[in-house]
Specification:
By secondary structure, the chain is α/β, with parallel strands linked by helices. It has helices at 14-32, 45-51, 57-64, 88-98, 122-125, 165-180, 196-209, 222-231, 243-256, 295-307, 312-327, 345-355; strands at residues 2-10, 35-40, 68-73, 101-109, 130-136, 146-151, 154-159, 185-190, 216-221, 238-241, 266-269, 274-276, 330-331, 341-342. The strands form three sheets. It has a ten-stranded mixed beta sheet, with helices on both faces. Strands 6-7 form a two-stranded antiparallel ribbon. It binds 1,4-dihydronicotinamide adenine dinucleotide and magnesium ion. Residues 247, 251 line the site of magnesium ion (MG). InterPro entries: IsoCit/isopropylmalate_DH_CS, IsoPropMal-DH-like_dom, Isopropylmalate_DH.
Length: 356
């Protein structure tokens, strides 16, 4: 079979990590007899530089006619002074919206080899960490009304958080279905003691839960959830939450699993073309130094093989190879600890490809 992948490498470390992910895909193709074709698309700062638009029409068209999209990361200080509509992040938000990508699936797993890189005490992580964040991706405050105006005491700015019943229902259903494939528990995180949008969220999640009597549902306020992630991370199975809370909590979840450079994600939606991307950003502080950990992007490719192409054995081969390099003691700087072997971005990619 031939699979067409649109590749939006983006900015900062994006191109470096995507290059390694593609070499791992090539190794999979060679071993299992598949052909992957890649079409580069400009998104984010790179697109602003080449075409004056963070998501040129041409890029969107290529993504729409591909079988899946692989994204590195977008953004960086170079474009920070641009107005909102022209910023790199706007390109990514528009791409997610245009592809109908409403469910961002972010597994956060602590590999036993990385226990040293986890800042939590051994007694807290003894039962392991295996959380799946299901983050709403097309609504909420990132897409709400916003603006600046002159107020009574000077400049004011506002961002609106709005969720419809329809939006909550479909993301809740994704979470409950995910829980069925895992340990049958959903923790829905909101701020229903204060926010009206969270009260709707809670009501709709309850309604969907009634269709899944085999799944345990627990509600948690976001402030408590951020504490529980540190205090009792093993208590979470599927963590269902809004766009902004999911953005923040998954960065927190990444730290307790060692590094943000380890966590992949899949953005699933209505149009059939899904996007796979590491959860981290473009890391301008380490771009060009070969310090970036490519594992999050490589594991995102494993998610692509499994969810978009139905290639489970191939996905597993990547995941096993990642475990293999960690067992061998190979570490990029973000997960380095005493007695381990320091490798750079390219070496890490090559070693993973070799183990497949
Ligand atoms: P970031 O995720 O890029 O970096 C946060 C910290 O984690 C930095 O110290 C960075 O060096 C480190 N880090 C990130 N990925 C790493 C990797 N693969 N290996 C090793 N270390 C890694 O977040 P930050 O600094 O807040 O944002 C930088 C830029 O990225 C901004 O322009 C931001 O808007 C953009 N961004 C883009 C995202 C996307 O494209 N999906 C998501 C988050 C931020
Ligand atoms: Mg984030």
């Amino acid at each position: 079979m031939e699979y067409k992948i649109a590749v939006a490498a983006g900015d900062g470390i994006g191109p470096e990590i995507v290059e390694q992910a593609i070499s791992v895909l090539e190794r999979i193709g060679e071993k299992f007899g598949h052909k992957f074709t890649y079409e580069n698309v400009a998104v984010g700062g790179a697109a602003i530089d080449c075409c004056g638009d963070p998501l040129p029409e041409e890029s969107l068209e290529v993504c729409k006619r591909s079988d899946a999209v692989l994204l590195g990361a977008v953004g960086g200080p170079k474009w920070d002074s641009l107005e909102n509509a022209k910023r790199p992040e706007k390109g990514l938000l528009r791409l997610r919206q245009s592809l109908g990508l409403y469910a961002n699936i972010r597994p956060a797993v602590l590999y036993k080899e990385l226990a040293d890189a986890c800042p939590l005490k051994e007694s807290i992580i003894k039962d392991g960490i295996d959380i799946c964040v299901v983050r709403e991706l097309m609504g909420g405050i990132y897409f709400g009304e916003r603006g600046q105006r002159q107020g009574k005491y000077g400049a004011e700015a506002f961002d609106e958080e709005c969720y419809s019943e329809y939006e909550v229902e479909r993301i809740a259903r994704s979470a409950f279905e995910m829980a069925r494939k895992r340990r049958n528990k959903v923790t829905s995180v909101d701020k229903a003691n204060v926010l009206e949008s969270s009260r709707l969220w809670r009501r709709v999640v309850e309604k969907v839960a009634a269709e899944f009597p085999d799944i345990e549902l627990e509600h948690m306020y976001v402030d408590n959830a951020s504490m529980q992630l540190i205090k009792n991370p093993s208590g979470f199975d599927v963590l269902l939450t809004t766009n902004m809370f999911g953005d923040i909590l998954s960065d927190e979840a990444s730290m307790i699993t060692g590094s943000i450079g380890m966590l992949p994600s899949a953005s699933l939606g209505t149009e059939g073309v899904h996007m796979y991307e590491p959860i981290h950003g473009s890391a301008p502080d380490i771009a060009g130094t070969r310090k970036a950990n490519p594992i999050a992007t490589i594991l995102s490719c494993a998610m692509m093989l499994r969810s978009s192409f139905n290639l489970s054995d191939e996905a597993q081969a990547i995941e096993k190879a990642v475990e293999g390099v960690l067992e061998k003691g190979l570490r990029t700087p973000d997960i380095m600890s005493q007695g381990m072997t320091l490798v750079d971005t390219v070496q890490m990619g090559e070693e993973i490809a070799k183990l497949i």
